[in-house]
Amino acid sequence: MHIDVEGIELHWEEAGEGEPLLWIHGGMGGGSDWRYIFKEPPSGYRLLAPDLRGHGASTNPSGSFTFRQCAADLRAWLRHLELPRVKAIGLSGGGITALHMATAQPALMESMVLVSAPPYFPAQARAIQRQFSEAMVGGAEMERMRQRHRRGEPQMQQLFEVARGFADSYDDVNFTPPYLSTITAETLIVFGDRDPLYPVSLAFELHAAIPRSYLWVVPGGGHGPVFRDAAPRFVETALAFLGGDWSRSG
Asked: Rounded to two decimals, what is the model's pTM?
């Protein structure tokens, strides 16, 4: 499915029935990545999985990219779907997008799970971003990327340029504690303690600043420690959290 919003054509997938659950993929990913986590749509949810601008089948004619703009895209899309309030899972850049949504329009987010999403880019992340290339990604992941991103090599090169541009961007991902304190959504922060991009100390900063937040540090986990063998436990934990089990238990 697709819709024209904010100057782009935004594509998304829907699966399952029930209350809306937004899956927001990370940078270089796509909406269909939810299948790497869930074997099937989670029971009781209408899973909504958009491709962020310039990713997957979504367009980005201007070539410019910010997570703040992605949040505006998704807010416009949710208005089109007549969904005033949602739950969300955001992975890395998808979590940054969710933070922008939750701070710009707090009532929109009922609860959210943020996986490996930083409040700002630390020096170690900027060093990696500055030299980001196909060689760093590896052949197997490049093939998966080609399957996700349907507009060929120009789209792929645009995404790499965007990622390298993050190294010198300071205003888009800059969530200060006062800003984070405006979030009203119950928030589960998930971080690996061996993330090469974002040190686990950033998770503690988020937890200290977001009022109704919980912190789950995954021992030995890297960036996005919710895939492969870790997926079943993540699904169980995230769905229990989104279902309200944690708040009911105190």
From this structure: 0.97
Query: For strand 45-50 and strand 8-15, is the pairing parallel, antiparallel, or unpaired?
Result: antiparallel
For 52, the token pair is: 């962020």
Distance CA 22, CA 89 (A): 6
Name the CATH topology of 2-242.
Rossmann fold (3.40.50)
Q: What are the strands of the beta sheet with 8-15, ordered from one edge?
A: 2-5, 8-15, 45-50, 19-24, 86-91, 109-115, 186-192, 213-218
In one-letter notation, the amino acid at residue 235 is: V
pLDDT per residue over 7-19, tens digit each?
A: 999 999 999 999 9
For strands 19-24 and 45-50, give the pairing.
parallel
Q: List Cβ neighbours of 240 (8 Å cut-off, separation of 6 or more).
A: 246
Cα 38–224–78 angle (5° rounding)?
A: 60
Strands (E), the chain: 2-5, 8-15, 19-24, 45-50, 86-91, 109-115, 186-192, 213-218
